[in-house]
Here is the input.
Amino acid sequence: MTLRYRAHPELRLTALEGEGVVLHLGSRRYFSVNETGLAILEAIKPSATIAELVTMLTGRFEVTTEQAEQSVRAFLDRCLTSKLVEEVAG
Amino acid sequence: MEVRLGQPDSAEGDPRPTYRQGNVLIRAGGTRADPVRLDWDDAPASASVDGSTGRATMTLSPEACEQLDDCLRTFGMTVLIFLVRRIGWHHVHAATAVDPKGRGWLLAGNAHAGKSTTTALLASRGWAVGSDDISFLAADRQDVVVHAFRSQIAIRPGGRDLLAREGGACLESRDKTGFWPEELGGRWQPTVRPDILLFPVIGDARTSIEPLRPIHVLAELVRWSAWVVLEPALAQGHLDLINRLARQGRGFRLTLGRDLFGDPAVLDTIIPT
Here is the structure.
């Protein structure tokens, strides 16, 4: 089974000039996200695997697969902690 | 808005999540058409804002009526904020003004950021000002405009001393003095199209500004629009409006120094053209 990731139902996102502000309605917390984070959050609607996110990043930014995977995993970890993202069975 | 006198019915059994805004407990959720239930902490009072009809019914107990000024200023205002969201007016903690060059200003921040004292200072220089705290964002064709709730500019004792102004109305329960803009030499401006978005802080140094990147302006506007999170069905629309405002204006961190009160003309020229 491959894990997929999707935006938490209580997440709201607004983007400006390649960056974004993410709001969690339940916790009433908000976060700023950079260009990479915004790209990941937009890509997980409706859901995506880590491999799909890595492919998306390497296609959009000048990064190696290893760098992209490291970024994706680190970002998803933070988002899972803050309940901005949730895991779903693939 | 209909106001009834009597004992409010109980909210027990309402399974929706609750949110707290000051001394008001809010139950919201579901679809845009679902009513919002509000209860006041200080005395029995409740309200229902009907999303489908755009009507609010407020039920005030005799105990609430004994504190009518406080009840209307806090609870009644919260009900109003939920009611006008139905017509696309979204509350933001902000003051508004129009500078001598005709540019609209919006000053957003918390209760101790200096909004009211600055608004009073601007009014005393003859500027047109709107609210010192209660403002509503709204779309107007391609623009975002801000409607001001007309009320007295409420200044704390320290601000009044700095302003060196006699008179005003004693707002005893809030330990503040209230001035209408006209009493200070200004005039009231009900609606402003903001070109300048300011996020004031009180500092010890000289009054200064620091440009903010658009993403930081967006984050600040979200921060001072706490209502954005209280009603899931309307949150994205509120965020989209804030986003449009962040694109519309230039944003600055405004550090308010004591020099401002010796030389208030600094505000006339502090924002570059």
About this structure: The longest helix of chain B spans residues 68-85. The first strand of chain B starts at residue 2 and ends at 5. The mean pLDDT of chain B is 91.
